[in-house]
Specification:
metal ion binding, single chain, iron, two-stranded parallel ribbon, NADH Oxidase, alpha+beta
C-alpha cells in the first residue's frame, strides 16, 4: 500500500511539473452509469453525422478492452484559457478559444508520453496507452469519476475554482494506484447555458444534442449547413464557446501558461472584411499548426459565407 501511495503521489506531482493543471485517478472498470446514457443518446441520433460515435460501443465503456490488463485510468486537465489580450473581440468573426494555438493533440500527446516514460523510470515496467480525444474513451466520465469536476448542464466538465476551459486526456495503465472519488454537482438551479444556446442544442439539463450544436455544424458536418439554422450562429465560424462563456464558474478561469497555445498575433485583429476575403495563404499562415486545419480552408470559407451571406 505504501508503494501505491508513493507512486500515486509521484504521478500527480510530475503531472503538475509537466504543465497539467490537475490529475485524478480512478479504477479501470466498466462505466455502468454511462452505458444507458450513451445508448439513449445514440438511439435519438444526437451524434448527427458523427457515425464514428456509434463504433466501439463496448470499448467506450470499458478501458480494459482498450489496454490489456488495465488497472487505472489517470485523467489529466490542461488549461487553454487565453489571456484577455489574445482573445478575439466580439465585433468580428470568432473561433473557439481552444483552437487559438498549436493543435492540442500534439501538445498533450508529447506531455503524456513524457509522463508515461517518467512513470516507467520511477516505478518500473508499466504497460499503458496515451489518449487525447482520438480513441473511444469517455473523457468527461473518467475525469468526473476521478474527482476532477462534475459534468455540468452544458455537458462540459466543470472544476471548482477553475471553470471548464481545459482539455481532458488520459493514461490508461496496468498498475494499481490510489483512487480518487467523485465530487458533487454544483450547477444548482442555474440555467444560463440552456438559455444562451442559440440553436437549443442543450435540449434539457445535462443533455446536448450534438447534431444541433454550432461546433458540430462548423467542424464535424462536411455537407452544406442546413438553411434552418441560418442567422443562429452569431459570429462563430469554428466551434462555439457560448455555453462556457456564460457559465458563472468560468469567472474563475485563469490564463494558461502553455507557450504552444499562444494565439497568432494577427488573429484578434482580423475584421469581418478580412475574414470575408481570407486567402488560402493567410489561412495557412494563421492556422499552420492549429486545430482549425481540421475543417480546412474550404470548410472555413463555407462557414464564413454562412455567417456572412454576402461574402
Amino acid at each position: 500500500m505504501l508503494l501505491r501511495a508513493d507512486w500515486t503521489s509521484f504521478i500527480k506531482r510530475r503531472a503538475v511539473e509537466l504543465g497539467f493543471m490537475a490529475c485524478g485517478i480512478s479504477k479501470a472498470e466498466f462505466l455502468e452509469d454511462e452505458a444507458p446514457r450513451l445508448e439513449n443518446w445514440l438511439k435519438h441520433g444526437m451524434n448527427g453525422r458523427m457515425a464514428y460515435m456509434e463504433n466501439h460501443f463496448d470499448k467506450r465503456l470499458d478501458p480494459r478492452l482498450l489496454v490489456d490488463g488495465a488497472k487505472s485510468v489517470i485523467s489529466l486537465l490542461l488549461n487553454y484559457y487565453p489571456p484577455k489580450e489574445e482573445q478575439q473581440p466580439d465585433d468580428t468573426l470568432k473561433i473557439s478559444k481552444y483552437a487559438y494555438g498549436r493543435d492540442y493533440h500534439f501538445v498533450i500527446k508529447d506531455k503524456l508520453k513524457m509522463l508515461l516514460a517518467d512513470m516507467q523510470a520511477e516505478i518500473g515496467e508499466i504497460g499503458g496507452r496515451c489518449f487525447v480525444d482520438s480513441a473511444p474513451v469517455l473523457d468527461k466520465a473518467w475525469a468526473k469519476k476521478s474527482g476532477l469536476g462534475w459534468v455540468g448542464k452544458n455537458s462540459n466538465l466543470i472544476t471548482p475554482g477553475s471553470g471548464s476551459f481545459y482539455f481532458i486526456a488520459e493514461l490508461i495503465v496496468d498498475v494499481d494506484l490510489e483512487y480518487d472519488g467523485a465530487i458533487r454537482d454544483y450547477c444548482g438551479t442555474c440555467t444560463k447555458c440552456l438559455d444562451a444556446c442559440p440553436t437549443q442544442a442543450i435540449t434539457e439539463p445535462y443533455v446536448v444534442d450534438g447534431s444541433k450544436c454550432i461546433s458540430y455544424f462548423t467542424i464535424e458536418l462536411k455537407d452544406q449547413i442546413p438553411t434552418e439554422v441560418g442567422g443562429k450562429f452569431g459570429n462563430w465560424v469554428f466551434g462555439c464557446d457560448i455555453c462556457q462563456d456564460v457559465c458563472p464558474w468560468n469567472r474563475f478561469a485563469k490564463p494558461h501558461q502553455e507557450p504552444q497555445f499562444q494565439a497568432h498575433p494577427d488573429l484578434k485583429n482580423l475584421t469581418p472584411g478580412d475574414w470575408r476575403e481570407i486567402t488560402h495563404e493567410l489561412f495557412t499562415e494563421l492556422f499552420r499548426q492549429s486545430a482549425v486545419k481540421r475543417t480546412g480552408y474550404a470548410g472555413l470559407t463555407r462557414n464564413i459565407k454562412f455567417v456572412l451571406p454576402e461574402a
